[in-house]
Amino acid sequence: MQLYDVELSSRLMLGTARYPSPAILTEAIKASGAEIVTVSLRRESSGERAGQGFWSLIRELGVRVLPNTAGCHSAKEAVTTAHMAREIFGTAWIKLEVIGDEHTLQPDVFGLVEAARILCADGFQVFPYTTEDLVVAEKLLGAGCRVLMPWGAPIGSGRGLNNVLGLRTLRSHFPDVPLVIDAGIGVPSHAAQAMEMGFDAVLANTAVAQAGDPVKMAAAFAKAVAAGREALMADPIEPRDLAVPSTPTIGKAFLA
Questions:
Q1: Element (DSSP H or E) covering residue 37
Q2: Residues known to be catalytic
Q3: Does residue 208 sit in helix, strand or coil?
Q4: What is the per-residue DSSP string for 98-110?
Q5: Which residues on adjacent β-strands are paired with residue 128?
Q6: How confident is the model at residue 51, as a pLDDT?
Q7: Tens digit of pLDDT for each residue in 70-80?
Q8: CA torsion through residues 29, 82, 170, 182, sign
Q9: What is the mean pLDDT of the chain?
Q10: pLDDT at residue 245, as a whole number
Q11: Residue 221 neighbours by CB under 8 Å, 6+ apart
C-alpha cells in the first residue's frame, strides 16, 4: 500500500487515545503490526511534558506518526493546529478533522474542504476525515488530497459500517484513490468487512484502547484486516437470491 510517497506493508492504523497506560499502548502497537499511529496534538500537549513522552515512545517503536486536528471546529483552528503539529513532529502528514456536530462528531465538510485547500497549497499531505459523500470527495481531491478517510460510523460508537451502500459507491467511484475507513469500527469483523469491500486500510482506536485486553484486540484486528484483504484478492463469489447446490446432480444415482 502506498500513501502519498510512502510504501507500507500493514493496512491497519492505530489511534493512541484512551489506553489504560503507555505500556499497554506500546504492546498494542506491537501486536497490531501497525506502521502508522495517529495522535491528537492537543491531548499530547495538555499535560506537563506529555508530548515529549509520547514522541519518545513513537521513536522507540519506529512507527510513523500521523498528527490529527481533533477537537477543531473551524478551518482556521484546524489550519493553525496543523502548523503546530508539523513543527512539533517534523512531518508534513496531517489527519485533518473539522468537526461540525458535537453529538455525532460528523465532519463540517465545508470547513474541511476549505482547510484542505489551504494546507495542501502549503505543502501538507492531508488525510481528511470525511463522510461518504461523493461530491465532498471530489472537492477534497480537487483541493489536493490524495488520500480520503471516510467514516464508518460516529467516532467511538463501535457501530461498524452504517452506510454500506454509500461506502460501496464511494469505493467504486474512486477506484484508484487510497480510501481508509476511519471512525466507528467496533470489532474485527467490521474491519474485515471494510477490507472485503475494497477499502485500502482501516483505522481503529476506541475499539482497541477500551477493550478488556487491548493487546489481544490489537492482534485480532491485525488478523481481520489481513483476512479481509486476502478474501478480496481471492475474488469472492457474488451473493445470490436462490440456492445453488454445492454437490453436482450430474451422475447422481437414482433408484427406480
A1: strand 36-40
A2: 95
A3: helix
A4: -B--TTT--B-HH
A5: 96
A6: 54
A7: 989 999 999 99
A8: positive
A9: 91
A10: 78
A11: 12, 32, 188, 191, 202, 204, 207, 208
| DSSP secondary structure, 118-152, as one string | HHHHTT-EEEEEE-S-HHHHHHHHHHT-S-BEEBS
The DSSP line for 169-205 is: HHHHH-TTS-BEEES---SHHHHHHHHHTT-SEEEES
pLDDT at residue 249 above 60?
yes
Please tell me the distance from the alpha carbon of residue 20 to that of residue 163, in angstroms, as a whole number.
Answer: 31
In contact, 15 and 203? CB cutoff 8 Å: yes
Nearest residue to 28 via CA among 61, 59, 50: 61
Report the residue count for the chain: 256
pLDDT at 171 over 50: yes
Within 10 A of 21 (CB to CB), how many other CB atoms are there? 9
Closest CA to 72 of 44, 117, 102, 49: 102
DSSP one-letter code for 65? E
DSSP state of 213: S
Q: Which grid cell sits at 209?
A: 484502547
The rounded distance, in Å, linking the Cα atoms of 95 and 42 is 13
- Give the pLDDT band of residue 219 (cuts 50, 70, 90): very high
Distances in Å between the Cα of 96 and the Cα atoms of 17, 75, 212 are 16, 10, 30
DSSP single-letter state for residue 160? -
Residue whose C-alpha cell reads 450430474 in the numeric block? 250
pLDDT at 251 over 50: yes
Give the H or E element holding residue 117.
helix 109-121
| Per-residue pLDDT at 256 | 59
52-66, 110-124, 137-151, 205-219 — which is least confidently predicted?
52-66
